[in-house]
């Protein structure tokens, strides 16, 4: 139990004193970048899905 309490205390000290946290404006810009990248990726996957669906529909209609 002593090892666990030491680990928790050391972890808390590391997080509160040694970690450099980003500013709120940096978090906002990073979040915006992730949002845009996610939307672009979703559109690409949607277009690929549409292409496969159209191709398979044409393939199945030929029989």
The proportion of strand residues reads under 5%
The end-to-end distance, rounded to whole angstroms, is 71 Å
Which residue ranges are poorly predicted, with pLDDT under 50 across at least 5 consecutive positions?
A: none
The total strand number stands at 0
How does the major sheet shape up? none
**Overall form:** elongated
Number of helices: 2
Roughly what percent helix?
over 70%
Q: Provide the number of structural domains.
A: 1
State the order of secondary-structure elements, H for helix, E for strand: HH
Radius of gyration: 25 Å
Structural class: mainly alpha
- Integer average pLDDT: 95
Topology:
Layout: H1 2-18, H2 24-61
Describe the structure.
The chain is mostly helical. Helices cover about 85% and strands about 0% of the residues. The chain has helices spanning about 1-20, 25-60. It is elongated, with a radius of gyration of 25 Å. The termini are far apart. One of its GO terms (cellular component) is membrane. This is Preprotein translocase subunit SecE.
Descriptors:
0% strand, mainly alpha, 63 residues
Outline:
Pfam families: SecE. By secondary structure, the chain is mainly α. It has helices at residues 2-18, 24-61.
